[in-house]
Amino acid sequence: MKFISRIFPFVLLALFIITCNQKRDGEKETILEGNMTLLVDESLLPIVEEQVEVFESQYNAKITLEPKSEAEVIQILANDSARVAVLARNLTKDELNVFKSKKISPRITKFATDGIALIANKNLQDTIVSLEQVLDVLRQKPVSGIKGLVFDNPNSSTAQYMNQLAGIKSFPATGVFSFKTNEETIKYVSENEGMIGVVGVNWVYNPREAIRPFVEKIHILSVADPSGNTSFPSQNDIAEGKYPLARDLFIVNCQGFSGLGMGFASFIAGETGQRIVLKSGLVPAKTPGRKILIRQDIEKK
């Protein structure tokens, strides 16, 4: 009996450790730990890649990115195949009603404003393009000086944005071309004079190494609006509302629990995430604070 009474506390301790380990192994993701798939509008991939890289370096989390067209992202979200996404627009009323019918209340966080860049081959002498002329190509009206428009994907956010501005539902049969990615669009424009590419601005501000040689062979064009004012997709012009092709960026979380979706949304909208946005050339939703160090004494050399 004495032997049993002596080993009993150790047995309890062993059972406690085993139980804790089992709980830890079966634990669901938290706001800062675990694994998550993040759907990304392909036109926003560079800025999201930067955010994820820093987030993973600070927390015990693994976020797998799935770049898709805007239409694909919305469809996958609606089918519950994934629960968190980054979009270049807010959800529409109809889309919100779909989630409401499934008793899901998406948490939507605005984290930045970017612009759609119009790009051309570097041999082009005139670096200003009329927005109305670009839209007229989509409307199939005769336009001089523009051989055609090149998009990343007919279902992308950039394509939908431009079609809406032009007042059309889909691309015309002539004058408009599309690939599958922004990278292919940039490469094609860099090699073909007279074509204007339509891409997410962060693809040309922070290009991947593979497409840097092609980015060096293009111009980012200034855009003249109908009133004749000219602006550029710079942080300043976008922040001041001068650039006509600006759009807000959102992270949409449909998880319904305190998981990585909530943690990543808080991170991307927080101090560090907003600094990454600022450094990338986009406009942060909140201007990150500046720390000023005041020295009491001046060192004399």
Automatic annotation (TrEMBL):
Residues annotated as domain PBP: 36-270
Leader sequence segment: none
InterPro entries to which the protein is assigned, alphabetical: PBP_domain (IPR024370), Phosphate_ABC_transporter (IPR050811)
Signal among keywords: yes
UniProt keyword terms in alphabetical order: Signal
Gene3D superfamilies assigned: Periplasmic binding protein-like II
Pfam families: PBP_like_2
PANTHER family on file: PERIPLASMIC PHOSPHATE BINDING COMPONENT OF PHOSPHATE ABC TRANSPORTER (PTHR30570), PHOSPHATE-BINDING PROTEIN PSTS (PTHR30570:SF1)
Protein name according to UniProt: Phosphate transport system substrate-binding protein
Native organism: Flavobacterium caeni
